[in-house]
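agent: user wants the full assembly modeled, not chains individually. Plan: 1) parse entity lines 2) check alphabet per entity 3) run joint structure prediction 4) return tokens. Steps 1-2 passed, three entities, 903 residues total. Proceeding.
--- entities ---
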Amino acid sequence: MTTTTARLTASFDDAPLTLVRRRWPLGLALLLLVAFVALPLLGDDYWLNAILIPFLVLSLAGLGLNLLTGYTGQTSVGAAGFMAVGAFATYGLLLRVPGIPLPLALVGGGLIAAFLGMLFGIPSARIKGFYLMVTTLAAQFFIEWVFAKFPWFYNYASSGTISAPRLELFGYSLASPVGRYLLTLSCVVLLTWVAVNLVRSQTGRNWMAIRDMDTAAAVIGIPVDRYKRLAFAVSSFYLGIAGALWAFAYLGTASAGSFDINRSFQILFIIIIGGMGSIAGNFVGAAFISLMPIFLNHAGQWLFGGNVDAGQLQNLQKILFGTLIIVFLIKEPEGLVRLVGNLRDRLRTWPLRF
Amino acid sequence: MSTLLEVRNISLSFKGVKAISDLSFAVRRGEICALIGPNGAGKSSLLNILNGVYRADAGELVFDAERLHRPHPLTAARLGIGRTFQNNALFKNMSVLDNLLTGLSRFQRSFFIEQALGLPRARREARVFAERAEQVLEFLELQPWRDVAVGSLAYGLQKRVELGRALIAQPTLLLLDEPMAGMNAEEKQEMSRFIADINRDLGATVILIEHDIKVVMDLCAHVVVLDYGRKVGDGTPAEVQANPDVIAAYLGTVHG
Amino acid sequence: MNFFLETLIGGLLAGTMYSLVAIGFVLIYKASGVFNFAQGAMLLFSALTFVSLHEQGVPFALALLLTLLVMIIGALLIERLVLRPLVNRSQITLFMATLGLSFIIEGLAQGLMGAQVRALDLGIEDIPLFVGEVMISQFDLIAAAVAAVLVALLALLFNRTRIGIALRAVADDTRAALSIGINLNRIWQIVWAVAGMVGLVAGLLWGARQGVQFSLSLVVLKALPVLIIGGFTSIGGAIVGGLIVGAAENLAEAYIGPLIGGGITPWFAYFLALVFLYIRPAGLFGDRAIERV
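--- prediction returned ---
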């Protein structure tokens, strides 16, 4: 016992800097290879434009909201507001700062969104739960109003919309579907890596501690208010970049209405269905949300031979989503990602079990 | 031995009901001090004042020869006041290891951006933290549950994890609120051993609330008795046991 | 001065509508701790059901009765299929479940009864009324009177009947209420049914004012600031909160709006609620929870 405790009192600074060789898991390497090489070669424009790009952007937005809601426990229904900030800020930077490279404009847009997110996160020091939702609703509606009301933000366009002035990197145009796909994919991969780092770090643990019990978090020395604001800022940074990509890589042309409250709910559903407090869950949830309508559409065509009313399909979709949300909350609160995990475990032990 | 903590004329009331009135006592550096008294005597409230969860209506605290102005849980933690709670306040969805690691927050030096990008300083810090957490796991014999979510652990084990989370922060003063509540004799003995080791080997001063008089007598050199928010006894276990006021306070109340 | 008075009174009367929506929330929140996001969808559903029946030639009173029946069946189903399996789960989980519920109800409402705007004529003529030189909307006045009657009925229900007493017992201390043999599931069914009825009245009044359409379900978002200001647990608070939000919104739009570009009603109420939150975190009439460690 004495030897253990003697080591316990050891100072913090005398640990040697050892190099750890990290091995890349084969599965991840394969996945990246497919995403970066195979899909652009094989995928047609429809797949890239209508499925892969929105899937990736929604995953990124889910990731942003999950950091705030799933990891830090601060429920937000204003995600789309911060996406709008990112989109309009990136647009403004590209338009008004001559020669600014695209990555810098994206990061700038993200940072502006982060700053606004932090501002709207200030009340989280005093307000919790449903009460905090009011703050996020205020953010959502206020931001929407600002971008619809003041023409400066959309450069006095008569349509009230913004479209990307130029999508290029080092002289290469990214305007083609493949270009926009690769741009989106790069952002998503980079930011996912950062998010994984974050949630495994002391910062991530502090966030989760605040989520699980914020009084106890303060007692053990976590500056709760500061970490909540940080979560708002980081989350909004992600949402901001997702917003810019949504506007320019996916939609092409966007307005304040592209980021209304329904978009916020959509992002919230991604993390509920995918899995709160899970990185992979965002991808699963986003895949589900973006593929479900397409699947339903095809199923409808196939069943009723082409004469399905689009409105009815949308209503059916709503009912299905609502039901799924409730079923997930009841049966699998950890979301689809947990189901996928269970399935994988079962497959792994499959030969042994039977 | 010098005085580590001095409580001077502390009073606290909730909505006009006095929880603690005009309470004073001192805790010497390196001792294990027990707070005893019937339920509702104000013991937990006192701990909450000591680490800034509640603010006292009157009186002052002197810790490590400095007066505490406007105590706050955060400043208390930074001064090295560790704490466990009566009804475990753990982070239920996190693993045992992660719970312990959160206790190291006050030593965190790397910025979040360094952690986000996996820069060398953050990685080195993470490694040092992980090593310390492993040491605490070993010390408290918690390795078998290292990666288990705390919420699914048995109550006694949760108490041990909570002790570990406070301990890993190298507290100068450790406040333990009924660390042995709901435990059987064997578990109590084990916990007593941990507390004694922490006190002896880490030099942490301990204030603990405990109902089991036998445990108190074995473990503590100093006992403070509260009743209805007032101090009715203060001294060595033997002195306190002989004190007629203490006996009066305990008459008619049932404690295990 | 007349303009000010008109704006104020118009706002107050519009505020009674907010109050009606908020009351439905408070009922459910008090009895089950659920923040029912589906209240707006229930509003839409009830108004649509009524209009559809009425259009089919069902007489007014019968249509009202049938709609009521539908709302009660709905409440029973919700309790059985959604609330009971989620008992003892966190408030946020329950809230999200009602979010899903609102999707189902909206999808059903529009799927079954169409998405186009429907006119709803309650037979109330909207002739402006002049008190001195101040113009008041007669429709709003009648709506406010209906709201007042409804609140009085609810007060009777809570204070004079066995159900009401059981309800208050549950709201006060759920565990104690259970231990003396109150059937919690039954209470929840009743509360959701009553909230459905309040939703029906609110849906009809709102619907008559602006047409029965999807945007009715968005009224739910306006109820949130009303609840923040009035407190989640007080019917009186919901009424006062609604009046404050209605009046403040109208005044702000009239006096502050022109200075910053107008159209500020979508967000003004939330900022007002935030200001209130900073001053009184539990609302004007809510119970302040003491956090225990």
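agent: reporting back. The beta strands of chain A are 162-163, 168-169, 172-173, 253-254. Chain A touches chain C at residues 75, 123, 126-127, 129-131, 133-135, 137-138, 141-142, 144-145, 149-150, 215-216, 261, 265, 268, 272, 311-312, 315-326, 329-330, 333 (CB under 8 Å).
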